[in-house]
Each structure stands twice: as structure tokens, then as C-alpha cells.
Amino acid sequence: MKKIFIILPLFLSGFLFSQKKPQKSPAKKGTVAKFNYHDEFRKISDEIMANGTAYDNLGELTKRIGPRFSATPGYTKAVEWAEKKFKEIGINMIWRQEAKAPVWIRGKESLQIKAGNGDWKNIRMLSFGNSEGTGGKDLVGEIVLINSTSELNAMSIGQLKDKIVFVNVPMDPKIINTSDSYLQTAKSKLISASVIAKTGAKALIIRSLTTANDDTPHAKMIYYEPDDKVKIPALSIGVRSADELEKTLKKQKVTAKINMTAEAKGDTTNPNIIAEIGGKKDSKVIVLGAQLDSWDIGEGAVDDGTGVVQCIEVLRTLKALGYENNHTIRVVLYANSENGGQGREMYAAYVKKKDEKHVFALGTDAGGYSPRGFSLDMSPQRRRLVYPWKEYFLPYGVYDFDQTEAIQDISPLKKLDIPLAELVVDTQRYFDYHHSEQDTFDKVNKRELLLGAVVITQMIFMVDKNW
Asked: Tell me, what's the pLDDT at 407?
């Protein structure tokens, strides 16, 4: 890294942050008084930690509405709820942006296994999102264990034909950043239904991608390739069942019986919800985003109800403090993030078509845990502009500005050369609940959630003041 520091001008220029002007030391004649960012950060923190509504809002979203899967009544209710919340905090500019969403119904599903000539045993399972089903009929086959790509490549033609492939690969516990561990495992060809189908296998079972040591299955999204001649069913099982199944397979033959009524029923539309506070200086946009949809299991609290309510909290706080923003500050609550990503693609296409000038985009989709930093997915020059702000964030436990990838719903905006950032949190518990029935309101800590909203608001404030 080049050791170049660009010191930002930290001066007040006709700026009113609150209804009362910030206290400043009298400026000497011929000089400009410095702006006290520590004081302004503290005002944001005090407002949110004392008066923040994010936790109560999350309780409403998860307990009154619950799962918000694409193309379901739950998502429609979430849309209406979000619009109501924006209106309650005094936002006048609110609109919908329709995006395509697949209609996929999980239906009934079951997995049974039989060791040798023993009895059938029920195993907890979850279909992959968008998976093909079995048409409600039993799909029966011998299970073959494959835990590495080298094992897969060593299989001769026909060895896997009509078999059910079982992959028991855990997230690597040696990787401290659990998001990195998840992505490394999720990208494996071993858990690609398209790859496995080409071997002649007729179904895929994987160990759930989770850090929890329990038997709760976790959902995963599946993508079939356009040239797939056969689309095989795919499902996940809990880690304890997975480890027990591997032990059994090493001793004797195991047969599986899968029955899934999951099916796709074409496409519909679901809206992104967009709300903004217009800029006082210009029409340039600072956008903050989170996903409004969730999986059809659990309550969608950690993923990503926390991000939704933090976004709403940012706008509430700016309004409460009477902040007069230079640029337009916009929140986008994205549709169809979990099983297609059409909402984020639609918003990026809108920005390109309208030729809107976006100076910054920030995503929050990490579970509402204690904030630790921001991943800065932008040019080195832009990153160096952010580094001097570290001292203001340190009192709030935020120190990590070294990560360089923003992969949430703002990611398509990178193609438009928009600087991106993603909230970095302590993720050690996130994948205990991710994409499972365990993703419920009680897993979220109020103080951690509000602290995340504090530092997001502070970052939006700094960008608006200095860029």
C-alpha cells in the first residue's frame, strides 16, 4: 500500500446539523473555524441509543409479518409495512420499483434413509431454494459419499448413475471470518446440482452450511445451468445428521427415499421500496440498501430484518436531528434478494437508464451484530479519503477499514463505477441461524443492532459532508 495521506478539509461551510448550531470555539479573524466531528458523531449516537426505534420495528416485522419470501403474501405485507414506517418518520418521497420474481413453492418434503436391510428413518431436511421436486413421488436410490472434487473426478463413467450423491463438507473452522468460510464452501462444485447431474446422479444431499453444532437444516439457493438436460432435486440436512450418515456409510450400504413437491410456477413481480430525503445542495445520491425479502422458513430477523430496520433508522435519525443533507440520501429495500437477485439488478438498471449520479452506496446484510468496520469496495484513491475518518469511529468499536469487497445487493452498482461499502460486523454467530428456522427475533441483541445503525448513520453523514 502506498503511504499517501490526503487530509480532508474538516471545515464548516454553511452547514446545520441540528436545530441548534454545534458549539464552536471563536475563530480568529482571517481563519475558518474547524468542524467538530466528534461532537456530531456523539449526537448521532445519543439519538439512536436513547430514542432508536429499530429494535421495536424489527419485532413488528418478524412477529407480525414473519417470513417474507418472494411472491408470497408475506412479502406483500412487508412492503406495506415498510411504506408505513417511512411515512411515520416524515418521509414524503416513497415509491415502488417493480422487479421480476420467480414463483417457487416449497410444498411438502421428506427424507428417509435405510441402512442395510434395516427400517426407514426420518431425517430433517430442507429443499434448496428453487430446487426441482420429485413430483410428489418417492425417489429412491443408493447414497454415495463424495467429499472432494478429486474424489468426484476419480469416479468412472457410470459409477454415480442413478445414485444419490451426499456431500459432507463443513465450513472451514480455521477461517476466522465466517463469511469467507461460507463463501469458500458455497462456491464448491460439489454442491452444484448441475455438476452432479452431469454424472448421472439423480439427487444431491449436502451438509448444511452453518457454524452451529445442531441438527437444524439450512436452506441454500440453487442455480441450474441453461443447458441442463436433467434438473435433479437438491436438499440439505443438519450437521449432526450429516456426520452420522457419513459414519454409517463407511460401514454399510445406505438407501435414501426423497419426496418433494417443490415446484416453480413461472414469474411475477415484487417491488423494491425506495424512500429518500432530497439534497439541499444537489441531486447527487447516497444510497443505503438492505433486502426486504427473506427465506420461507424462520422470521427473517438476522437475514435481513436487521438491515431493513437499520436503514429506516438512518432516515429517522437524520430527520429527528434536523440534518440538512447536501446530497439526496436514499434507502432501497430490495426485492427478490434470496432466490434470484432481480431487485438489485432492477435498481442498477434504473440508475444507468436515468444516468443518476451516485456518489456512494452502502449495504447492510450481516445480521445486526456488533459493528467492527466497513469494507471499502472502491478505488484506492477513494479508500484513502476514508482512512482519516477512523479516529471518529474508534470510540464506537469500529476499526476495520481494510476489507475491499462489498457483495450485498449494492454489488451491481460497481459496474457503474459507484464507490461501494459494506458494514462489517462480528459474524461469529451469523451462520448459526442463517437461512434456517432458527432465524428469529430473539437472536438479535438490541444494543448491537442500534450500534450498527449508529455507525451506518455516521458514515452516511461523513460522505454527505465531504464528498
From this structure: 86
- Mean of all residue pLDDT scores within the chain: 92
The long-range contacts involving 47-50, CB below 8 angstroms and separated by at least 24 positions, are 47/317, 47/320, 47/321, 48/313, 48/317, 48/450, 48/453, 48/454, 48/457, 49/447, 49/450, 49/451, 49/454
Residue 152 has phi, psi (to 5 degrees) of -65, -45
Residue 221: pLDDT above 60? yes
Residue type, 108: K
Residue 196 has a CB neighbour count (10 Å cut-off) of: 26
Q: What is the mean pLDDT of residues 307-322?
A: 98
Which grid cell sits at 170? 463443513
**What is the 3-class SS of 77-120, one letter each residue?**
HHHHHHHHHHHHCCCCEEEEEEEEEEEEECCCEEEEEEECCCCC
Q: Which residue has the cell 463505477?
A: 417
Which residues of 146-284 form beta strands (DSSP E)? Answer: 164-167, 203-207, 234-237, 254-260, 263-277
3-state secondary structure of 208: coil
Report CA-CA distances (Å) from 52 to 96, 142, 312, 417, 448: 26, 55, 10, 33, 12
Query: Which residues, in sequence order, are CB contacts of 18 under 8 Å at separation 6+?
Result: 43, 321, 322, 323
User: Is 317:453 a contact under the CB 8 Å cutoff?
Assistant: yes
